[in-house]
Amino acid sequence: EVQLLESGGGLEQPGGSLRLSCAASGFTFSKYGMSWVRQAPGKGLEWVSGIGGGGDNTYYADSVKGRFTISRDNSKNTLYLQMNSLRAEDTAVYYCARGVVTADCWGQGTLVTVSS
Amino acid sequence: DVVMTQSPLSLPVTLGQPASISCRSSQSLVYSDGNTYLTWFQQRPGQSPRRLIYKVSNRDSGVPDRFSGSGSGTDFTLKISRVEAEDIGVYYCMQGTHWPPATFGQGTKLEIK
User: Fold this and answer.
1) By Cβ atoms counted within 10 A, which residue in A14, A69, A103, B61 is the most buried?
2) H or E segment at A88?
3) Running DSSP on this structure, what letter comes out for residue A105?
4) Mean pLDDT per segment of 10 residues, for chain B of length 113 residues?
5) A23 CB near a chain B CB, below 8 Å?
């Protein structure tokens, strides 16, 4: 069974940093691209970032480009999202999903709140 | 970026009756490989999104056959032949043809009358 488990969310001040993790199991992690999608409270879905299976190719939404960095450790079956220079508008539940844009499986999400 | 526009945004339906959601893209979603990367997701209250349909009309494993997807080019539709109580939630379309970024529609909230 495919499982994706996000962690690392929490309360952070504007300008601060957080690193999210997504632990994958139930499939050959290195063979799949992965992505992060977020959902602000009461709002719709926003694709944030994607990464190829080997980790060499990375992609970002303009809203996070230059502030967020996606990466992966295939030896640990884990996806990461390093979030720097956080803003209030980054407040959201962050989901990891299998596939760069296919999103066939999703985790349960982790809440990031940016507030002073 | 490709803009995805869903309608209606709210859809009250009687149990057992059909439902239909429209999704339109600001440009054609036909990719150079001939495929059309239009996906439908369901998000039940308090849950993560779940993929229902990929490449316009392909149902994911475990998705009831009362759900169907159709369309081409810039116009797409998700249909539920007979709405059941477990179908309540928000439905999103998403395009994965012109990325980055992949872009979602605003969401359509399906509720029971």
Assistant:
1) A103
2) none
3) S
4) 98 97 98 97 98 98 97 98 98 97 98 94
5) no
How far apart are the C-alpha atoms of A69 and A76, rounded to whole Å? 18
By the 8 A CB rule, do A41 and A91 touch? yes
Q: Does A46 touch chain B (CB under 8 A)?
A: yes
- Cα–Cα distance between B13 and B6 in angstroms, integer? 17
Candidate from A45, A62, A109 with C-beta closest to B92: A45
Chain A window 47-86: which residues touch B at a Cβ cutoff of 8 Å? 47, 50, 59-62
Cα gap A33→B29, rounded to integer Å: 21
Question: For residues B41 and A60, what is the distance between their CA atoms, to the nearest angstrom?
Answer: 21
What residues does A39 pair with on adjacent strands? A45, A93
Are B101 and A59 an interchain contact pair (Cβ–Cβ within 8 Å)? Answer: yes
Class of residue A41 by CB neighbours under 10 A (exposed 0-12, middle 13-18, buried 19+):
exposed
- How many CB pairs (< 8 A) connect A and B? 64
CB atoms within 10 A of CB B83: 21
Digits of tens for pLDDT over chain A (116 positions)?
Answer: 999 999 999 999 999 999 999 999 999 999 999 999 999 999 999 999 999 999 999 999 999 999 999 999 999 999 999 999 999 999 999 999 999 999 999 999 999 999 99
Region of residue A86 (left: phi > 0; alpha: psi -120 to 50; beta: else):
beta
Nearest CA in chain B to A97: B49
Contacts of B106 in chain A (CB under 8 A): 44
Distance in angstroms (rounded) separating the CA atoms of residues A40 and A60: 17
